[in-house]
Each structure stands twice: as structure tokens, then as C-alpha cells.
Design brief:
The protein has a domain of about 200 residues: Rossmann fold, CATH 3.40.50.720. The chain contains twelve helices and 15 strands. The chain has about 325 residues and is an alpha/beta fold.
Length: about 325
Amino acid sequence: MRKVVVTGGSGFVGRRLVDELLARGDQVTVLTRDPSRARRKLAAATRCVAWTPVTMGGAPAQPAKDGAWTDELEAADAVVHLAGEPVAQRWTPEARARIVASRVDSTRALVEAIGRRAKKPAVLVSASAVGYYGPRSPDEALDEGSAPGEGFLADVVKRWEVEAQAAGKLGVRDVELRIGVVLGEGGGAVDKMIPPFRLFVGGPIGDGRQVIAWIHRDDVVGLILFAIDDERVKGPLNAVAPNPATSAELARAIGRVLRRPAWIPAPSFAVKLLMGGEAASVVLTGQRVLPRRALDLGYAFHHPELGPALASILVEG
């Protein structure tokens, strides 16, 4: 039995992770801004402790003082850092500040707090993102050794990973989980994609050629558990399925599962109007990211193929 501290434990991935940790007998503490709300979402055995890793009163964000949340770190065997502002939004100056504070600054605060503990966890698994690679050609295969991309999101992810890697200097094994588009029931990308298909107006985004590095939520959780348990896992780890799909292929797969047409595209100009030019470029270009490290280490994906993965989410009964 391990004691695992999780940030972002009441989120879409975090809830499933907490359930899996408890099911295998681990003790779980969730660090959350709102413990009362988190307790309503999580299993009764979950310990919920308030944390505010950074304050947004000034620029840049300032680390919060030590408190009950930092005490939890001293007893932890593993820390999983999932908290962060969503990046799928228009990148206004305010949104950019929130994204940086919630991902870069919060990771720095967490690692600094670990450094002040006499007893440190064995491993820190920190969420990262395939945004590290930036918008890329659909023909370019990317793995953990590929060069980073350019743009706001790529820069944020690079800074985010640098803060997580600082845990390695403290003797803590650090893992940076570069997560792709997460598919799962009751949230994530599927909730946003499905309504147009149910109304018979679904289809690809833009020209449909951009490659989407997708992953089922079960495999995000599986890779986190793998990273906690296997001491060989260190550094960047692409959390994506081994068979990426184009936007057109994803649309057709959803259409087949739902028995709906998949031929009405979301025009590029509409995506740009909704998200703004730079954020839209990530969606409209995509990247072909492969889980090279996970496969080399022997991780067995629960959902390696898109069609069965979608069927596990969308087919009732």
C-alpha cells in the first residue's frame, strides 16, 4: 500500500485515477481548492485537503505559504500533479496568465514544497501535454526525443516540464506525462464532439487532414499507475494511443459508432473565430505523436484502436 497525493483529483482524469488507486489498496489524498466540492465527487475513502499553490494577486503569480497541504507531501510515497487551467479556450491575456500560473507556477510551488520536506516522495508524475511539439506536419512522426515546437502552448509546456524535472535534483524520480486528446465517458473531448453528430451535422474539423494524438482515459490512468510503479519510467512519456487518427478518420469513427453521417466539416474560419488564431492553429494543424517510450517499456494499452475505444464510451449496455 502506498500513500499517493493527487492534485486535480476531482477532474475528468483525476476522478478515475483516485478510484483505481483506492481499488488497489492505496491511500489517497487529493489537494484541491474546494475540499467540500471535491468530497461530493470522490469516494468516501478519499482524504481531501485544501491547497492554493499560487496566488494571482500580482504578476507573476506568487507561491502560497506552507500549510496543511505541504504537510501531506512528507508522508507521500508518490505525488501525481494533474491540476491546471484548460488550454482549449481563447488565449486572451487573462487566459494566458491563468494557464501559466496553474501549470508552470503551481508545479514550481509543488516541487519547492517537496524540497522543504525531510522525507520526500519516491516519484512525481506531472501532467504535461503533446502541445510540447507544437503544430506539425501530419506526416512527421514524433516521439519523446523529438524537438519541441514553437508558439505559446509549446513554450508553456517546455517551462512546465522544466519545473517538474527540478524534482530530479531532489532525488525524486520525475515523470512528465505528455497527454494527448483524452476520450472518455462523461467528459473530455467526447462531450464536445458528440452533440453535432447526434443532430446529424457532425464532421471533421477544417480539412480533416490534421492528425489527432488521442488516448482513452483508461490508458491515461494506466500510464500514471505504470509510472508510479515502474522505476524505469523517468522523464517525458507520451500519453497517446499507438494509432493516431486524422480528424476525418475520427469523425468517420464517431459516425459509425453512433450511426450518424460524418460529412459536414467545422470550417477553419469558424474555429479561428471561436478560439482565436494561435489557439486555433494547434487544433487545425495537430501532430502525429507516438508512445514510443511506453511501448519500449512494455506498457500494454487497454484501447490501442480508435473504433473500439469509441465504442467503449458511446455504446450503451
